[in-house]
Specification:
homodimer; alpha+beta; Molybdenum Cofactor Biosythetic Enzyme, Chain A; Molybdopterin biosynthesis moea protein, domain 2; Molybdopterin biosynthesis moeA protein, domain 3; seven-stranded mixed beta sheet; six-stranded mixed beta sheet; 25% helix; flat
């Protein structure tokens, strides 16, 4: 940590950077440019207001297909007492939008006229007859769109700063404009560096890393309104990086130098910035994303180009995008970020934060019992899936050491609120079939968000109204029943009524390496000196199952190597075995099958969904009930291996 | 109306169209295509799920810059009892992300090591010393990112139907993918037709119409995910239109034929469709936008291409986009429209609807006292500014003749909810300075929405909690005071407390044509036979002022020609005079000045803002108070002409 040049608070870093930008006149929207009014103008920002040059309509226009005439002439017209008008002396045919003649002040719709020939007989030439007959009187200006009905010349049509939508372009054109003055889009050059990096599509060896940060940063910058240029990977070579940064500076408005911004052996970024310009900041007290660099490059062609050294970990990289790149692009493009969506939500899990850092925490959100809830996601800087799953982020400011369960936080959303409100929150025991259910629901306008906290954790989440339903397979060893003992204790006694619906019966057993090199066959083998076990976390149904059976065979947990090594899902247990960190774990058949591992079946257990009766018959959960009745869905569950779906959807009563 | 081939309900039209699409296999997402993972993949929709091909990390990786070793070797390490490890036999230096050797299972951060030379002395070669000393014991897997920490091979990374965001691209790349399978984007060809149309940028004559529907439709289609091709304007010529439609059909997935879809003299669209393919629907019972055509073109190259005949009025055109083009593009692209934002709101104005039509009504929305409120906008099919102002629309279904004030409606939003929640609703008397205030607020993250219903209507909106503040200049003729008489009657007696803040003093007078051809000089001239007057609506302060002074001079309203001709704003009164519909109106100086009309000043009056005390000291209104104290803002008000700002911001007490 102490190796960074600076390790300063976010606010100070921002101010330092802003001062640098100010010095070169870069802390304001880019110069305006004139662009023609066409579909590509959409989503640009107006640099100057649009005042109407002409009125719309710009003449008195017919609002109907029909005949124009002077209204007074119809004064006496009645059904029984028609009035006749000669063409073209007293009336003329107009299509919708045609100019009203000076002497006319109303239009009668063609379907309300009778076309007559020179003998006063009804004729077929309805648009150009000799005369017409009308049977009702019309007030002046009937079916006329007067000048300026829509837009009056001199009026403000679109204010400065307007985010241009399709209809805005129409209004600007209607009021006499051909071009719009919008802020220029910045050019962002992204420069990935690192000898360990390989381009997407190349075969990767251990130690090599697929370079995708530049794609994420590029896509972000594009979304925020910039033009994007990605350079190929430069290897860790000071001279080469200098050269590339120099090239970029001649064309870019902003340079993103990815990785090489910490203080490891091959981290050149700060030296490059110092060599080619000014280094403002190196290292910011935020999490994730410490080693951010902020500086200014002075290009050979006399341009001054801000540079951001982006950390290499994908979450840090994307968050640096959010925190530094987004505000700059938005500022330059003239965007108003006032309308970025935020919600206030209650946090479902305790968070501890380092007191000295602003801590940016990704969350997933749902609406339960009229409150928004937010569950914090994995906080590792390398875990890109936490970004994939995130609905937004919250900030624990420096000086605050964390947040308690139930505290109210502000979430900066990156998804529409309706998506959050269509979310079914499933908290509890992990099972691979939940992914299948998520797929099924996604096609039916529901999003399933699951958190794997074990069966017991799931019941407690229902008690706290933090989930809609919980997957649970809690064995009561004393009588061999599932779930109800725990439901009484953790839900009924708290006044929470639930339905219990069977999901599957599933096989639990030992997940071992392919070919079972350690020749593990029974639970008793977990006591062997040469066997490394991987466990599930406390409160997991599988952990309770294990403890029950270990006690049954008289094997003390102190004698199980790796008993303290906890993972949160069956797949994570499998991955531990697969990577060689462990030889064996207790888990479900489908996890072993998915990872190509061997499986020794031991037990068959019931896995239910416990559902708050508050939601069990709501529209939100309807597609979940449909899934259980859907033959092809059941078949897809069975195909995972080790599942019995014959009771799926059956309500279980004690 | 009876001239349309059909005039059928929306649901029936949709079904007929769907059947036609089904017949040619077009009622489903377009074929998937493989695209490389780069920034252009953003906002595309996954046609196939992404399952992890490889784990991420795909090897056990160092999570720190530091030394890897076997954890057990540090078991005895303490501050006072360091452990020494030889390089490279017992420990090796790794950068973050480097591969952990087989024989190591943890990493100590470089800053927690002491580098030693061969004599056991501290040395400067911190990354490649002879040995290192550590003073704390490390558990296994400390500072190691194990295989699959982020993504486990075989795991579902992104579900089918996923709207791709920047971080999703990173996750797909990290899990071993180079390409993504997404639904192909449709090509939409837009064909504007009409001899009266002129391209944007050409000088317009009376009777000519600036062709901008194609730009709005094109921008809409682009936003919804299509590729767009706009053809030049084709004039009203059956053969030419046939030829262009034929050309379009060879390349398009959807043809939008704009205008020519009603049954006027030069409306060829339905004949063209019948000639080149099948006409499914002509005329739908919706408002606005009756004469929609739905059909299928059979191209020379054997393609079957749906065609939509879009009505010419801009609002109808854009609504046809929303109702028919959007769902089709979304379906083809694989979008899930479940997350389109909707809110439930209370309507602030009675709406009457034709019982036989589905009525689409544009609204503007705000949040007041924790409820969303929606005010219906102008319903004319030609009024594109109603679309510019709209936050979304609501539907009054056929069979329902309208909605009462206070009824709950569902709004389909086209703006973020936060924009709606940052809205200051100003309902009441019209004044040109309100536009200036809106500009000022827009730069300060507030949106001002105003409705011009007259001073009295403004007070009633405050009573009903439908606005935050109201512009008011209600004279009590009996004592010459402003506003308080009415506030007592309409607010205080209903338990609504308000603050009254002076805005301006302004000049009211006669707005007459340039050069004053009718030589109007006093209010008495309104009684002349040759003078046509334009009035303000009932409840407008200006109307009350007029009535008071007419009575004073003994001129009966029956003797004022045009007294029944009502307009809702000063500018609209001015536009009436400007267009020749009227000779004179009573209004404010700035409206005359804006339109280049002559003005005969008569009275000076006080114009206040009446503000619910519930909001007067809220964050929402803060920038409004700032505006009144801002010298440059005051100057911009004065520049409009006829305003005295010396009391602006002063609280008025009775």
């Amino acid at each position: 940590m102490g190796l960074y040049l600076h390790d300063i608070p976010l606010s100070q870093a921002r101010e330092t950077f802003r001062n640098g930008l100010n010095q070169y006149g870069l802390n304001e929207p880019l110069q305006a440019e004139l662009i023609p009014i066409d579909e590509n103008a959409v989503a640009r920002i107006l640099a100057n207001p649009v005042w109407a040059k002409i009125s719309s309509p710009h003449y008195n226009a017919s609002a109907m297909d029909g005949f124009a005439f002077f209204a007074k002439k119809s004064e006496s017209a009645m059904v029984t007492n028609p009035v006749t008008l000669r063409i073209p002396e007293e009336a003329v045919y107009l299509d919708t939008g045609d100019v009203l003649p000076d002497w006319a002040n109303c239009v009668v719709a063609i379907e309300n006229t009778e076309a007559l020939d020179e003998n006063g007989k009804i004729c077929g030439n309805v648009r150009n007859p000799y005369m017409i007959r009308i049977r009702a009187s019309l007030p002046p200006f009937t079916n006329v769109r007067p000048i300026g009905e829509d837009i009056i010349a001199t009026e403000l049509v679109l204010p400065v700063g307007r985010f241009l939508r399709p209809v805005d372009l129409g209004a600007a054109a209607a009021s006499g404009h051909t071009h719009l003055s919008v802020f220029r889009q910045p050019v962002v050059v992204i420069l990935p560096t690192g000898s360990e990096l390989v381009e997407i599509g190349k075969e990767v060896e251990p130690g090599e890393i697929i370079e995708y940060n530049s794609v994420v940063l590029g896509a972000q910058a594009l979304e925020w309104g910039a033009k994007v240029l990605r350079f190929p990977i430069t290897r860790d070579d000071f001279e080469q990086i200098c050269q590339k940064v120099g090239e970029a500076a001649e064309i870019a408005d902003l340079i993103l130098l990815n990785a090489g911004s910490s203080a490891g052996a091959e981290d050149f970024s700060s030296r490059v910035v110092e060599t080619l310009g000014e280094l403002y900041v190196h290292g910011i007290a935020i999490r994730p994303g410490h080693p951010v660099i902020l500086g200014m490059i002075h290009a050979k062609n006399n341009r001054h180009v801000p540079i951001i050294g982006v950390p290499g970990f994908p979450v840090s990289s994307a968050m640096t995008g959010e925190l530094f790149v987004k505000p700059l692009i938005r500022l330059w493009c003239g965007y108003d970020s006032a309308n970025d969506e935020t919600i206030d939500a209650f946090i479902t899990k305790k968070i501890t934060s380092p007191a000295g850092d602003d801590d940016y925490i990704r969350v997933v959100a749902a609406k339960i019992s009229d409150r928004y809830l937010a569950a914090p996601l994995s906080r590792g800087a390398g875990v890109i899936t936490s970004l994939v799953r995130a609905d937004g982020y919250t900030v624990v400011p420096r000086g605050i050491q964390g947040l308690d369960v139930g505290e109210k936080i502000r979430i900066f959303l990156n998804k529409p609120r309706n998506e959050i409100e269509n979310t079914i929150m499933v908290i509890g025991s992990h099972d691979l079939t939940i992914d299948l259910l998520a797929e099924y629901l996604a096609k039916r306008k529901r999003r399933l968000v699951s958190a794997n906290v074990g069966s017991l954790g799931g019941l407690i989440s229902l008690q706290r109204k933090e989930s809609h339903m919980a997957g649970s397979h809690l064995l009561n060893p004393e009588n061999g029943t599932y779930n109800f003992t725990y439901i009484r204790k953790y839900l009924t006694s708290f006044g929470v009524d639930v339905d219990v619906i069977n999901w599957v019966y599933r096989e639990q057993g030992l997940i071992v390496q392919t070919g079972n090199p350690k020749r593990i066959t029974t639970l008793a083998d977990l006591g062997r000196e040469d066997v490394e076990f991987v466990n599930r976390q406390r409160g997991a149904g599988t952990r309770i199952l294990l403890d029950f059976h270990l006690e049954e065979i008289g094997l003390s947990v102190e004698n199980v190597h790796g008993y303290e090594h906890e993972e949160f899902t069956h797949l994570a247990v499998g991955a531990s075995v697969s990577s060689g960190r462990a030889d064996v774990g207790l888990g479900i058949a489908s996890a072993a099958k998915a990872l190509g591992l061997d499986f020794i079946p031991l037990f068959k257990e019931r896995y239910d969904f416990v559902i708050s009766t508050e939601y069990s018959h709501t529209d939100l959960l309807l597609p979940f009930y449909e899934a259980m009745m859907d033959e092809s869905f059941r078949a897809s569950v069975q195909a995972l291996g080790g599942y019995d779906v014959s009771s799926m959807g059956k309500q279980i009563v004690e």
